[in-house]
Amino acid sequence: MAQVSLARKKELNEPDEFITLSNKALEYSRQNKSMIMSVVIGALALIIVISGYQYYAQSRGNKAFAQYASDMAWYETALKEKKGDVPLKDVKEKGDSFLGKYAGTTAAMLAQAKYAGIYFKEKDFSAAEKLYNDLLSESKPGTALRNISLCALAQCYEAMDKTDQAVARYQELLSGENEIKKDEALFHLGLIYEKKGDQAQSRDAYSRLAKEFSDSMYVEMAKEKVDG
Question: 41, 64, 140, 180: which has the highest count of C-beta atoms within 10 A?
């Protein structure tokens, strides 16, 4: 479930403008006191339910961030104590427990990205793929999160030798308006096409990278590929 911004909460909680009651309305209220009281009680109950849910959502979000921080502290400590050799089984138990309990929170999205990165590093590409797909389904078109998720997912497919799926994700990233990760997508496409022996498309990818992203960390390598 998407988190509601503070500004949006404030807007939702603002009362509607009150309409000044006329004498006729006052008379009506005296004659229909029982019915009006029932409506008021029903409305009040609804407000209490809504307020209670908003408190629950905020409280749950805070708990999720606290748990996320605790889990990451555990992981960093385990890395030091075990000199980088933390059993993946233990990491997955932590990750699955957290994501099962706090799904839908902002902290859960951070956890998905973090755990996916850990799984990718440990070469459990299937587990990483699942979390990156989850992030992708929760991201909105045109956002940095979507581009980052697309790029990471494409690299999972590369690692799994699913090059057609990798190319499709990189192309989807390049078709969007957000510039985040486009240089990286072009560089990887150049490598994929080069590996396939498609020199024309490989050169096109490198050339576009060199032309459109002059400040990219990949630009010098792309230029070498084009010039070479």
Answer: 64
